[in-house]
Design brief:
This protein has 269 residues and is of the alpha/beta class. It is built from 9 helices and 10 strands. A 6-stranded mixed β-sheet has the order 6-7-8-3-9-10, sandwiched between helices. Strands 2-1-4-5 form a 4-stranded antiparallel β-sheet, covered by helices on one side. Helix 4 crosses helix 5.
């Protein structure tokens, strides 16, 4: 059974159809790279998957459980959508860290709020039966995540004192802090200088093989080729071509994919 299933997603803004009947699936631990020109629908697809946008049609399932069904009103309530977002961690282009909080506080804020809610409703959170015990576990997990992204020594710094690459690495750790089923990246290096891009891509590469299931919208074709298990090339709101990196990037069959990659290769040269 696929961990993530996306079926027949359609999304329009006013009269402009941005996504046209998009379907794909992803197994646990796989990395999916979504590539394509600006305006092809990549970011809108990602935002629909993690419920930042609402599709007009389609079904989204995680672990065999339907999270969103356009034809089921019970799946559209604000409470249900808010709960469903917890299945996904999101890393944005512009980091979106809270500037008034330290690195460590950015990581623990959402889990602590969630712990209060879970303990109140379910009697436990992360195996802890009271809030104090839950906070201890959350703090410990936050330090482990900072170690994973190589920023342990920055725990008490504010975002304004970090480089762009460091801020994005904090954003990745923050997304991981809620233990999402699927980690989503929206052009995670597009706001970075070239010399900082590598450190962020290395962190993402390091997550591969740790059972992290990832969807990465990216313009880094070499990264998609080397790290992804599956690649989707989008054009004008449709999946023009999909397959392994070897199939889509090394041996594309669609003329539109070929033209896109040809422009990339010319730029690389």
């Amino acid at each position: 059974m696929a961990l993530l299933e996306v079926k027949n997603i359609q999304k329009s803004f006013d009269r402009t159809e941005v996504l046209k009947d998009i379907s794909f699936s992803l197994e646990k631990g796989e990395v999916l790279a979504i590539i394509g020109s600006s305006g092809s629908g990549k970011t809108t697809l990602l935002r629909c998957i993690n419920f930042l946008e609402t599709p007009q049609r389609g079904v989204i399932s995680v672990g065999g459980k339907v999270l969103y069904d356009c034809d089921d009103p019970s799946k559209k309530t604000e409470k249900e959508i808010r709960k469903n977002r917890l299945h996904f961690g999101m890393v944005f282009q512009q980091f979106n860290l809270f500037p008034q909080y330290t690195v460590f506080e950015n990581l623990v804020l959402a889990p602590k709020l969630l712990a209060k809610e879970y303990i109140k409703e379910n009697g436990e959170y992360m195996g802890a039966s009271n809030y104090k015990e839950a906070v201890e576990k959350i703090n410990e997990e936050a330090m482990q995540l900072l170690k994973k992204v190589g920023l342990t020594e920055k725990r008490d710094e504010y975002p304004c004192n970090l480089s762009g690459g460091q801020q994005q690495r904090v954003a990745i750790a923050r997304a991981l802090a809620l233990n999402p089923d699927v980690l989503c990246f929206d052009e995670p290096t597009s706001a970075l200088d070239p010399e900082l891009t590598g450190e962020v891509l290395n962190v993402i590469k390091g997550l591969k093989g740790s059972d992290s299931t990832m969807v990465v919208v990216t313009h880094e074709i070499s990264f998609a080729r080397d790290v992804a298990d599956k690649v989707i090339f989008m054009a004008d709101g449709v999946i023009e071509e999909e397959g392994t990196p070897q199939q889509v990037i090394e041996n594309p069959q669609s003329p539109r994919t070929q033209a896109f990659l040809s422009r990339f290769n010319q730029y690389s040269d």
